[in-house]
Amino acid sequence: MNTGYIPISFQASEDAAVQALWAERPGYQVAYEQLADDNLPPGGGGPVIGAYVEFRNALEDAIEALVLDGADPAATAATLQEEADAAIASYNDRVAG
Q1: Is position 5 within any domain?
Q2: Does 68 map to a domain?
Q3: Pick from 60, 67, 59, 63: nearest CA to 85
Q4: Which of 13, 63, 81, 85 could form a disulfide with 7 if both were Cys (CB 3.0 to 4.6 A apart)?
Q5: Which of 59, 51, 53, 49 is CA-nearest to residue 87?
Q6: Do residues 66 and 73 touch, judged by C-beta distance below 8 A?
Q7: Is the pLDDT of residue 52 over 70?
Q8: Which is more confidently placed, 41 or 36?
Q9: C-alpha distances in angstroms, 94 versus 89, 90, 91?
């Protein structure tokens, strides 16, 4: 409660102190309700900023290849670039129509 963030479980959200805080400062409850909501919008609840998820996944794969597998940096960067370009092109094709 002192952080201004959200309870970490449904059970914690039912705590009397949390309920009192929400009654006093309803804005604290908004983020919790959004995360606890099972009714995701069409397309999911992820960020709406292009090919974010696909790009992030390609970047994570590249970092893991470099750090964990000792992959060649130039080859890894080239693969990352190809995957990122493909993700962005796919996104652009989907939203252009």
Answers
A1: yes
A2: yes
A3: 59
A4: 13
A5: 51
A6: yes
A7: yes
A8: 36
A9: 9, 6, 5
